[in-house]
User: Fold this.
Amino acid sequence: MEKLNITLYRFDPEKDAEPRLQAYDIESDGPLSVLQAIRHVYHNVDGTLSFRNSDCRRGVCGICSMMINGRRQLTCMCLATDGMTVEPPPNRTIVKDLVFETD
Ligand code: FES
Assistant:
């Protein structure tokens, strides 16, 4: 059993005055991609989390790109690590949480 503590960006522009970072403890049977870890949080810990449920999960579409520990990467192609922080890219209009407007 693998245990991870991950921190995700939370912000609802319609309700929140400021964005915040929220930590989550998750457990899995094996390694998870960052995208799988986010999906795990949504399905098992906090169903209020918003994120793009990206389709390809193979590094092709690019829609899952986010800042992982301050570096822009594809969440479907990176392994989740204990203590990681996931945020939207800077200078993007936030729709809610990890959903942001794209070009
Ligand atoms: S889901 Fe398509 S690149 Fe990650």
Notes: The longest strand covers residues 2-10. The beta strands are 2-10, 20-28, 65-68, 71-74, 85-87, 94-96, 99-100.
